[in-house]
Specification:
This protein is an alpha+beta fold. It is about 35% helix and about 15% strand. A five-stranded antiparallel β-sheet has the order 6-5-4-3-7, with no helix packed on it. Strands 9-8-12-10-11 form a five-stranded mixed β-sheet, covered by helices on one side. It has a five-stranded antiparallel β-sheet with strand order 16-15-14-13-17, with no helix packed on it.
């Protein structure tokens, strides 16, 4: 389970606790596959509320095993042992909790997500109670006297009452951890779980087209600060390349040369062919669109005041015009370098010209008796790819009927030609790169942290580097866990020769 999924389930379970749904919260907590020490502590607290002492003991064992410096976990397990009347083990856990305080009067767990302060006098109070249950009254009085030195004003009465009870050899009340107080995930991490719309929605700020509500991208159009003093025909569209037209119907392209448009788009027609196909510009891209899908856009001062942009008609679109056999229409490179193409690619002898469509378009010349192997070799050399990675076809889609192979008769292929010209499509397979060698580190020291995003390891462990966070911190994988760790705790080890051979 990833860190994001764990964080999301942790936050959801804590929300259920706030809603008093303890059973739902416990169910979510138990579904977390690899809980950290804080989540295990929360699970133990919920079991303790449900009086399931055995399950609570196991949960606190898991929490202590993953973070041996978590004093509050020792304190809670000591309470669990006390309720199970295992007073010796309870006294031992309270002593461990007191040692983890390291001479401090309290530990405030607010920075770790737990709104609770563990006081040294409370730990000594419970230590004295466990010893009193074992009839060690002198040791109990010793712990309570020591608690007086660590006491706070709020807990003065509790310690005094406990000391008076020991003088009479009577037990006193246990200081317990408050119910329904759990570790919560970092609120900054939780805030990043929600998707944010950083860009927002686009809106038209200024346009030369009246009543323009188009929010896409169009070629840059010059604007004027002040309008004309008297009505006249606008000339801004005339300054752009081509004639402006409005798209009436949606057009879905079938080849790479055609351009997708929707009703309402404004395109600029560069050239209209005799086969009713037009070369247009839209969103700084060129392509072919049926001309009967377009309507000339004429903007006058009268239309500015009354009509605005004409909305697309509700009738069905016209039939798609047929392309002439052997002629796929003008491509982008033909529109830009038409004269140069005819000059360079025109066959001067009996050779054949093959135009190949790939991520770019190129042409090659072949002798009349050319074979498939010769064609494949020339195209592979042009693309700088092995011949096994190249597939040729008679159409843009490489299906069984259009694919050309060594078994295909070249005479049937040349039947699709127009004169001494033929157009083919080239499809290539992705080349897999060799996997780079892994960088590994050897742990010089053991590293343990209570932060869920950190990677815990012991001295001598091998760590695989995933990425470098900054100069002082790295991200790696060790023993099936992923997290960040300080670079000063490890050193790089060379990759074994046998690993490279594998």
């Amino acid at each position: 389970m990833s860190f994001v999924d764990t964080l999301r389930q942790w936050d959801e379970a804590v929300t259920h606790v706030d809603r008093q749904d303890l059973s739902g919260a416990l169910e979510i907590f138990l579904s977390i596959q690899e809980p950290n020490s804080k989540i295990s502590f929360d699970i133990g607290c919920l079991h303790l509320i449900n009086q399931d002492l055995d399950a609570a003991e196991k949960a606190f064992d898991c929490s202590i095993r993953k973070d041996e410096h978590l004093a509050i976990a020792f304190f809670q397990r000591g309470i669990t042992f006390y309720r199970k009347k295992r007073y010796e083990e309870s006294s031992g856990d309270f002593q461990h909790a007191f040692k983890k305080l390291r001479g401090n009067q309290l530990i405030d767990y607010k920075a770790l997500g737990l709104r609770y302060k563990l006081y040294a006098c409370d730990v000594l109070h419970n230590m004295a109670l466990a010893e009193a249950q074992l009839d060690n009254w002198e040791k109990a009085q010793e712990y309570l006297v020591k608690a007086l030195d660590c006491k706070t004003e709020a807990r003065l009465n509790i310690i005094d009452q406990a000391l008076q009870s020991t003088l009479k050899q009577k037990t006193f009340k246990l200081v317990e951890f408050p119910s329904k107080v759990l570790f919560k995930p970092n609120k900054h991490y939780v805030a990043e779980l929600e998707k944010k719309d950083y860009l927002g929605k686009a809106k038209v700020v200024a346009s030369v087209v009246p009543q323009d509500d188009f929010s896409g991208f169009a070629p840059l159009q010059p604007q004027t600060e002040d309008g004309p003093t008297r009505p006249k025909e606008p000339e801004v569209l005339r300054a752009l390349e081509g004639e402006p037209h409005t798209v009436l119907f949606e057009f879905v392209p079938e080849t790479s040369e055609e351009l997708a448009v929707v009703p309402g788009n404004i395109v600029f027609v560069l050239q209209k062919g005799t086969d009713n196909w037009a070369t247009v510009v839209f969103n700084d891209r060129r392509g072919l669109v049926p001309y009967n899908y377009l309507e000339p856009l004429e903007i006058s001062s009268k239309s500015k005041q009354n009509e605005g942009i004409r909305r697309p008609p509700s009738r069905k679109p016209p039939t798609r015009p047929e392309r002439r056999p052997g002629k796929q229409g003008p491509t982008l490179s033909e529109n830009r370098n038409e004269d140069r193409k005819h000059k360079d690619a025109q066959p001067t002898d009996n050779s054949y010209i093959v135009k190949v469509h790939h991520t770019f378009t190129f042409a090659i010349s072949l002798p009349p008796e050319f074979l498939f192997d010769m064609l494949l070799e020339k195209i592979s050399k042009k693309l700088n790819l092995p011949s096994t990675a190249v597939t040729l076809s008679l159409s843009s889609e490489a299906d069984e009927q259009s694919v050309i192979s060594a078994k295909t008769e070249m005479e049937s292929v040349w039947s699709h030609a127009n004169g001494r010209w033929i157009t083919l499509w080239c499809h290539t397979k992705k080349q897999t790169d060799e996997k780079p060698d892994e960088i590994r580190f050897m742990a010089l020291h053991s590293y343990e942290s209570s932060n869920p995003e950190d990677l815990n390891f012991h001295q001598g462990d091998t760590i695989t580097l995933l990425c470098k966070v900054n100069q002082d911190w790295l991200e790696g994988q060790c023993n099936g866990h992923i997290g960040i760790f300080p670079a000063s705790f490890v050193e790089e080890v060379p990759v074994n020769v046998t690993d490279k051979q594998k």
